[in-house]
Design brief:
Pfam families: FKBP_C, TPR_8. InterPro entries: FKBP4/5/8-like, PPIase_dom_sf, PPIase_FKBP_dom, TPR-like_helical_dom_sf, TPR_rpt. The protein has 16 helices and 20 strands. It has 622 residues and is of the alpha+beta class. It folds into 4 domains: 124 residues, Chitinase A, domain 3; 105 residues, Chitinase A, domain 3; 119 residues, Chitinase A, domain 3; 139 residues, Alpha Horseshoe (Serine Threonine Protein Phosphatase 5, Tetratricopeptide repeat). The strands form 3 sheets. Strands 7, 8, 9, 10, 11, 12 and 13 form a 7-stranded antiparallel beta sheet that branches. Helix 10 packs antiparallel against helix 11. The C terminus is likely disordered.
């Protein structure tokens, strides 16, 4: 029985802690708030938390003396009060009383001081000279209430949805927007209108509409209609409203007719994708984000004075579309980045800088060097990669081999990031592969090791020595005598300046496989040469440092190349029998992060031997 009770308790939902408004309402005692109905309202329910309420308020003493009012008839501005229940700071009596009203209702609330400004720790400050210690009458007319979208926490921008729109995507910087817009004062006086004829066109983020209006439009979807309430602190000058003085609050009626997705692909304004025809599906779920077989038509234009078209698939390719696999470096980088964010059937206009167009890609003969390019691209469709689920082991390994070969090609072309992505894709898929016998297990383990070492080679080419070492460790933890793993990790250690660790790997390599002695010997010779180069540089930097009298400071002047280690040949001898298909050429240049740490961290303990050769047994840095 006790166990059952524990089970019931386990699923009992926790009570939410009371809100500040709920805590305040506990102060209300019988007789402190009385309501008299003056005019009935309409509807079945009153406002609740999250609703924006709009009401007039007139306050009098119990003798009928006017204290203050929002109505112009009684000396007010004629502007009703706007609050959001559960969000706005309100008098306790109104917080309790207004939710009991219906739309259009007029009621008189008789409040004790502790229900208005006389409340202890009242969140609303009393106006100067207000009789906050008196019992008062509050006459309230509830003009309207509705569910509100609070755009800013201070309630300076609030949206009322009049008609739901289509889809889920909302405009943002730097989208191009078309909207029907009108603006009115709180009293309903028209300020400006673009509700007829052509919709108002503006670029999001360019301050072409008031700040608060733009913030609210950024929460709308296509074809949505809304009323947007904007207070003065969010009214900024713009081409839409050049004059904003004299308006405490403006009500904008907006219908979001259309917007064009414009994407700053690099974040610096150089590579811009502008959608000129919508595609089918939901963005970005239905885009070819993953490597896929893509079919596109495109027209390429050189952005010079002539704006000459240099290629058009519909004209120059006999009307046939271009087919290519993404993630394989088969098209310029800017082209592929843009297509990956397109929907089937979409047409986009892409403006591309030279370094993402043809400066780093085989350039057509009729495209000058350094040219900015514009592509008009239509994504006809795409096919996602084959799902490995249900494939037998042989088919899986064939698929893996095809992807690995693509990675090897990309590696040889110097596209190390793309190559690494291919190898890592197969490794992720391997997490779901279960060999059924020892023979399959051996093939699987050997292939996985080759992929890890290929990833390590990519890291090394990208100057990521630490990551290269960590990836080699994945192979060596399972097989400490893996010759290719030792060689590749040794090269990574050498590039990082960890010479003793590199030497140890090359010696173990010779010990476990005599056939690799020539490769290991060559690697040790390179290591020795690198140590000598570092030591030579250090001697030059330390020249004269210890020839000064006590108290004097001598600066070690570096060469023009600073802390960088002199680059050796980019080629290393391949390990014999390296069947992974990836060139084992490893750069001997220190990676950027190693260079920034300076020479001291790079050649220690070689530096220790340098001090000893100079007759210095211990050096204290003050």
């Amino acid at each position: 029985m006790a166990a059952n009770e524990d089970a019931v308790q386990e699923f009992t939902p926790k009570k939410k802690p009371p809100s500040e408004d709920e805590k305040r309402k506990k102060k209300i005692v019988p007789g402190s708030l009385m309501k008299a109905l003056m005019r009935p309202g309409g509807g079945d329910a009153g406002p609740s938390d999250g609703d924006q309420i709009i009401y007039h308020c007139t306050i009098r003493t119990l003798d009928g003396v006017l204290v203050e009012s929002t109505r112009s008839d009684y000396g007010g501005k004629g502007i009703p009060i706007r609050h959001v229940l559960g969000k706005s700071k309100m008098l306790l009596g109104l917080l309790e009383g207004i939710p009991s009203m219906l739309k259009g209702e007029v009621a008189m609330f008789k409040m004790k001081p502790q229900l208005h400004y006389g409340e202890d720790d009242c969140p609303v400050s009393a106006p100067d000279g207000f009789p906050k210690d008196d019992e008062l009458h509050f006459e309230i007319e509830l003009i309207e209430f509705f569910k509100a979208k609070v755009v800013t926490d201070d309630l300076g921008v609030v949206k009322k949805v009049e008609c739901e729109g289509q889809g889920w995507e909302s405009p943002r910087e730097p989208y191009e927007v078309k909207a029907l817009i009108s603006a009115k004062t709180v009293t309903g006086k028209l300020i400006m209108s673009h509700m007829e004829g052509e919709p108002y066109f503006f670029t999001f983020g360019k301050s072409e509409v008031p700040k608060g209006l733009e913030m609210a439009i950024g929460t709308m979807v296509r074809e949505e209609k809304a009323v947007i309430y904007v207070t003065s602190q969010y009214l900024t000058e713009s081409p839409l409203m050049p004059v904003i003085e004299g308006y405490d609050e403006v009500h904008f009626e907006v219908e979001l007719v259309h917007f064009i997705q414009v994407r700053d692909m690099l974040g610096d304004g150089r590579l811009i994708k502008r959608r000129i025809r919508d595609g089918k599906g939901d963005f970005p779920m239905d885009c070819p984000l993953h490597d896929s077989l893509l079919r596109v038509h495109y027209k390429g234009t050189v952005l010079n004075e002539e704006k000459r078209v240099f290629y058009d698939t519909r004209v120059d390719n006999d009307g046939q579309p271009l087919e290519f696999c993404s993630g394989e470096g088969l098209v310029p980088e800017g082209f592929e980045m843009s297509v990956r964010l397109m929907l089937p059937g979409e047409i986009a206009l892409v403006t591309c800088p030279p370094d993402y167009a043809y400066d780093k890609f085989p350039r057509p003969l009729n495209v000058p060097e350094g040219a900015h390019i514009q592509w008009e691209i239509e994504l006809l469709g795409f096919e996602t990669p084959k799902d490995w689920t249900g494939l037998d082991f042989k088919s899986i390994m064939n698929e893996a081999e095809n992807i690995r070969n693509t990675g090897n090609r990309l590696f040889k072309e110097g596209k190390y990031e793309l190559a690494k992505a291919k190898y890592e894709k197969v490794l992720r898929e391997f997490n779901h592969v279960n060999p059924q016998d020892d023979e399959e297990g051996k093939v699987f383990a050997d292939t996985r090791n080759l992929l890890h070492l290929n990833v390590a080679a990519c890291h090394l080419k990208l100057g990521e020595c630490k990551k290269s070492i960590e990836t080699c460790n994945k192979v060596l933890e399972a097989n400490p005598a893996h010759v290719k793993g030792l060689y590749r990790r040794g090269m990574a250690y050498m590039a990082a300046g960890d010479f003793e660790e590199a030497r140890a790997d090359f010696k173990v390599m010779m010990k476990v496989d005599k056939s690799t002695e020539s490769d290991a010997t060559a690697a040790l010779q390179k290591l020795k040469q690198k140590e000598q180069d570092v030591e030579k540089k250090a001697r030059k930097q330390f020249k004269g440092l210890f020839d000064k009298k006590p108290g004097e400071i001598s600066e070690a002047k570096a060469d023009v190349d600073g802390d960088q280690i002199t680059s050796e040949s980019q080629k290393d001898d391949e390990v014999h029998g390296d069947s992974d298909g990836t060139n084992s050429e490893d750069s001997h240049e220190a990676p950027p992060e190693a260079q920034r740490t300076g020479w001291f961290s790079l050649f220690w303990p070689s530096g220790r031997r340098l001090f000893e050769s100079l007759g210095i047994n211990r050096c204290t840095i003050l």
